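re: that complex we talked abt at group meeting.

here r the seqs, copy pasted straight from the sheet so there may be weird spacing, ignore it
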Amino acid sequence: VPVADRGLHYGDGLFETIAVVAGQPCLWDRHLSRLRLGCERLAIPVTDPAQLRREADTLCRGVERGVLKLLLTRGEGGRGYRPPLEPVPRRILSLHPWPDHPSTSWQQGVRIRWCDTPLGLNPRLAGIKHCNRLEQVMARAEWSDPGIAEGLMCDADGQVVEGTQSNLFLWRGGELLTPSLARCGVAGIGRGLLMELAGESAIRVREGAVSRDQVMAADGLLLSNALIGVWPVAALGEHNFDPAHYPRDLLARMMERIHLP
Amino acid sequence: VPVADRGLHYGDGLFETIAVVAGQPCLWDRHLSRLRLGCERLAIPVTDPAQLRREADTLCRGVERGVLKLLLTRGEGGRGYRPPLEPVPRRILSLHPWPDHPSTSWQQGVRIRWCDTPLGLNPRLAGIKHCNRLEQVMARAEWSDPGIAEGLMCDADGQVVEGTQSNLFLWRGGELLTPSLARCGVAGIGRGLLMELAGESAIRVREGAVSRDQVMAADGLLLSNALIGVWPVAALGEHNFDPAHYPRDLLARMMERIHLP
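got the structure back, here u go
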């Protein structure tokens, strides 16, 4: 990558992390929609989706299971922060091994913890998957115990937002509550899918402010992302959640859906 | 730059923009101190300062006037956001032409405006010059009129923080007030120097919360950075400031100091 790329200097770009199963990038249209929204928000020209798909297909051919990372930067140039008037975006597609999460995580649940690193509040950057990720990097550096699968992050006002690489759902009284992403956080592809599947199962899903107290008072917690599908939480710090309470049918449908192209 | 560099993927790095005059990087020790603080905050190993200086000197040799950019990323590797346990930082030194600001700006003052893009609040990232700069990129994209030299940014709570590439000082009643950078913003090298010079001139400088009303009620505004030194503000939007009110001696000392190695 040329040294003048603005992705390198300012994190001036967007990315998608896409599950690859049986040679196909999964949930492609959803990933591309979020990428397009990010391009609009940052005023980066949208790459032709058909071209991206051809490149992705070529890279994924013959891959039984893997991860496709699609990185799109604003490209080179501009004087300082000021973006060039006619940017020529750079796209970088790379293939990575499937993460070695235990395959039983979605049935047995995972152990998670709280992170101290806060998420800054900025509605202009909320929801999209841009490359300014120092907050997640710092939060993920807070623990090294491989038995801890994820850490929950709060915003600068102390409201609970998401995991470092997943979205959070609270399960209580037969309903789901997930933090609003209007002021910070990433609108995960897994999150959108889980909300849809819940709707199809007549499980009500609300978005709103979520406090730490609400998290601790939930019947259970779920984490979603496009690679893991959904994980129930067995323990948050010292607090255990009873796996018996989880909506098993919904979880099974999510796992089935996420592993099919 | 290798495609796996974390600077490219997450903005996982730091930078310094250093004035070069007569073959010498100016205010080197101050830039290196801030870089070291950034390294400590992000847990990036500190590069040997003597080695950096040798490389900088080699690059700057024979340069009458220019800009040295020092970019330090965490280097490659790590699974997702999680930083590698023993990162090997990558340093990139590059030389750029001196910006073509009118040389009379510091005497006649500049026209500036307000930006709409807010600065997110995050004490962990405040003060240091890290590479997560999408907020500044978006703010700088708000105007293209070359007659506007800078834009002022507020934080998510509406407090005034800084310019897109400079720090702000309010001049009122013979004293200076500059926004606190405890929750967001960059602690500029020019800012630190101007505060020192003000102290030597027995001009009181306070740091604190600054509202838009306070900005509009100031006798005058000053902008500082390591390349421009200090600019008085002639107009903020439709509001004019009277150049007669500025502390001329302080400005002259700052310009003298900033242009000497």
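couple things i noticed - Chain A touches chain B through 54 residues (CB under 8 Å). The radius of gyration of chain A is 19 Å.
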